[in-house]
Amino acid sequence: MNPKGFKYPGVNLGLKKACGDYIAIADAHSLYPRNYISRLLLELAAYNADNVGGGWVVFPRTKGVLSKAITFTITTPFGICT
After folding, report:
1. Do 65 and 73 meet the contact criterion of CB atoms below 8 Å apart?
2. Residue 2 covered by a domain
3. Of 21, 56, 59, 75, which sits with the fewest C-beta atoms within 10 Å of its C-beta?
4. Which residues span the domain enclosing 54?
5. How many domains does the structure of the chain reveal?
6. Do the Cβ atoms of 52 and 36 come closer than 8 Å?
7. Angle (nearest 5°) at CA 72 between 69 and 74
8. How far apart are the first and last CA of the chain?
9. How far apart are CA 4 and CA 30, in angstroms?
10. What is the pLDDT of residues 13-54, one digit of tens each?
11. d(C-alpha 57, C-alpha 32), whole Å
12. Within a domain: residue 36?
């Protein structure tokens, strides 16, 4: 249970309680290739890495102006996925 009700405090709680050799975090509004996890495991081993991930391909969820504006904004150098 996430008493704060926000994503990242919940992620932090989950990480504290996680057990096992690997932890995968996947966002609910994302689509992943079938081999995503196995590919991440291969990259971890190949580079002896502590953390791996993939890139983003961002598409607007609707054809509306706001959706297109958000997509444009987060895919520019001033956005969050540069």
Report:
1. no
2. no
3. 21
4. 7-74
5. 1
6. no
7. 105
8. 33
9. 23
10. 999 999 999 999 888 778 889 999 999 999 999 999 999 988
11. 11
12. yes
